[in-house]
Each structure stands twice: as structure tokens, then as C-alpha cells.
Amino acid sequence: MQIEEIETAIVDKLKLDIPDLSVEPFPDNVKDYELIHPKGAVLVSYEGSNYTNPRLEQQARMIEFDVIVVVRNLRSHLGAYETLERVRQSVTNDLYIENMKLYPLSERFLFVEDDKWHYEMRFMLPTVYFIGE
After folding, report:
1. Fewer beta carbons below 10 Å: N end or C end of the chain?
2. For the whole prediction, is pTM greater than 0.70?
């Protein structure tokens, strides 16, 4: 499965489970991104992959995706804390990609600006890569 297909699967699952926020792929031009949704947004982006066993024809490939949560509240309904929990539950429950589940790796506060809280959640999808595919 290609990176864009995996990203789309994650976005679609989050849209289904968190319909009260804007859910979309991370924008191409971050500097021009403006949060328009009145409550917040969930943005998904590919962050990279790690491979094991570099001398074998078949390698384990750990694909990492970030989910950036941008919300206008910290603790209230649809605030950062609740949204982080909802994102984790959505991405790790009932989402199978190539018969594998995504696993949470980390989450952290990024910054607050203009009363918008920014958090990053990183997830990993274990897959198998065959040389030459």
C-alpha cells in the first residue's frame, strides 16, 4: 500500500469518528494554513519509515504518521485533552491497513498561539517491504 493510500485511510477513519472537527491531510503550504473551523482541526502527515535487516530481501518497515491536533480549547468539551483521547481511540481501534493496526508511539504539546493549542501524536504502522517492490 502506498503512503498516500495509508494517509487517506487514516483521514477517513478520523473523519468518521470525529465528525465535529475538521479532519484533513496536512496542508502543502503550512505557512498559509489558517484554522477556519470554529472548534479545531486534526491534520495527518507521513513522517518517515524505518527499516530492519538491510541485507535481506524482506525487511520490516515501520511507517510513521503524525496527527496534529489544533483546537481552540484545552480542557473543555472538544478541547485538546478530549481530542487527543478520541484521536488515539480512533486510530488504534478497528483500523486495519494491510492486516496491521497502527500503534501509538508518542504525543506531545507543541505550542499555543492565538488561543489555539497544538499537539502532535505519532503512530507507527508495521509492514513488510520486499526489495524491488
Report:
1. C
2. yes
Which DSSP state fits 32?
G
What confidence tens digit (pLDDT) does each residue in 50-77 have? 988 777 778 889 999 999 999 998 887 7
Name the grid cell of 108.
506531545
Phi–psi pair at 29, nearest 5 degrees = -110, 90
Strand (E) or helix (H) holding 66: strand 58-71
The long-range contacts involving 23-30, CB below 8 angstroms and separated by at least 24 positions, are 26/66, 26/68
Domains located in the chain, CATH noted: 3-130 (3.30.2000.10)
Count of beta carbons in the 10 Å neighbourhood of residue 77: 9
3-class DSSP state for residue 99? coil
CA angle 25, 117, 8 (to 5 degrees): 15
pLDDT band for position 103 (50/70/90)?
A: very high
> If we measure between CA atoms, which residue out of 6, 26, 2, 19 comes closest to residue 95?
6
